[in-house]
Q: What sequence folds into this?
């Protein structure tokens, strides 16, 4: 009778030990998932950086268009001046 009780005790201890391992593993995985979601899942920092970069790109495009327009005006004025000079 004592051997059967002893074997049952060992089985309970083994089950309890593996249960502890599973709980610790789940806690670690859950913590990792939570930290990962908090830092990268929502990606609020990346979204903010993307918006800033997009605004900068639009500003540079507008600046380029302004410079292109000024260059076209200057080129036209230069050609007009060259034409007037050649007529004289």
A:
């Amino acid at each position: 009778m004592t051997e059967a009780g002893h074997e049952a005790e060992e089985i309970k201890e083994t089950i309890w030990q593996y249960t502890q391992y599973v709980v610790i593993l789940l806690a670690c995985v859950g913590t990792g998932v939570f930290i990962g979601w908090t830092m990268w899942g929502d990606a609020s920092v990346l979204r903010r950086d993307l918006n800033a970069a997009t605004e900068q790109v639009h500003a540079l495009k507008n600046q380029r268009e302004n410079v292109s327009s000024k260059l076209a005006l200057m080129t036209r004025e230069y050609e007009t001046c060259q034409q007037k000079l050649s007529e004289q």
The chain has two domains: 1-42, 43-88. DSSP finds two helices and no strands in the chain.
